[in-house]
Design brief:
15 helices, seven-stranded mixed β-sheet, alpha/beta, glycerate kinase, domain 1, globular, 416 residues, 19% strand, single chain, 39% helix, Rossmann fold, six-stranded parallel β-sheet
Length: 416
Amino acid sequence: MSREIPLHRNRLLHIYHSALAAVHGRRRVADCLSADPFPGPFHLIAVGKAAAAMVRGVLDVQPHAARRCLVVCPHGAGRGLSRLHDRLQVVEAGHPVPDEGSLRAGRVLREFVAASPPRMPFLVLVSGGASALLELPRPGLSLSDLQRVNRWLLASGLAIGEMNAVRRRLSLVKGGGLSSLLAGRRVRGLLISDVPGDDPAVIGSGLLARGNGALPARDLPGWLQTLLDRAGNASEVLRPETFPMVSQEIRVIATNRDGRRAAARAGRARGYAVFEHDALLVGDVAAAAEDVAAQMASRGAGLHVWGGEVTVRLPPMPGRGGRCQHLALLVARRLQHESRFLFLAAGTDGRDGSGEAAGALVDAYTLRRACQAGLRASDCLRRAASGELLAATGDLVVTGETGSNVMDVMLGLKWD
């Protein structure tokens, strides 16, 4: 292996962590409320992968204004939160597939709002992952129905906006349902965006915003269409014309673009020429890999910065891996004849598919190390088992909880 590779790998990882720091939920919420405090007293609701970090940001700046707090977060993410405030309740739930905790979170949310004084303002913090973590299903739908839907969506290759359009149709709390529960109150929503376009109606399936409700254009399985029809015919349906007026403002306080800009600044600080790509990498993972490889091959030395969230259509029995790992392995295969390159693809939430990895960082020797381990890239890609190969080659990126979720960051590096 070239002696230069470890140096550049460490630098690329540092640049990635610079992007994470720029969009950390605690920092972004604290900065927002320091600049423009939300008049208290108020009640606080936080839902999503970054909920724990975002609540800490509120308590850093306005600890006495928040009278009661409800936090809905993934299992294990709420440890220690209840010690921060004497009236803070934590509900942990399943992600990426809802579980009993998700239904409990929906029930607790409804009770939390109902028990609040009629004029009490609400500060609502939403980040990616809220779609699975919080649910009030429409009448006639069971937890097993929701789990089947979410498993199909995750393997479908649909874009996140299309997935969340389906989820909104099955829910009483999504698609603006939370706004309905908060009728007549002053509400400020602070959102961390994990979706292209940063649309509040898509982030977390639109807890505070309805959206247009358009379903995916492609044909849906018959069983799923039956569930959608059943939900649409249910007696307890929140229609746009029945939504009560709410004094509400929504602010998107962290986006993928913020992370990309921080990565670009960190790259320039290390002396790299930087190529910033404004177009998000979305859609089919193979097409995205071709685009990445072509752009890196056609440019000179420097750092490429992309963001986005590609899609992978999974086989019936997928192996260990995720979309970022799949993308990284495809890029490694396409650039295997380049001797001086690195490519990192990793989630900003610290999780990429199954397993504990956030993504992967590959180099010109990744495929050689795989062969030495008895693994073939083509076989692992076919089985959606990129993580098995990248674990063997030592190319996985592991961060743990990051306190944010603004889609994925991709960094490509070439040097002379």
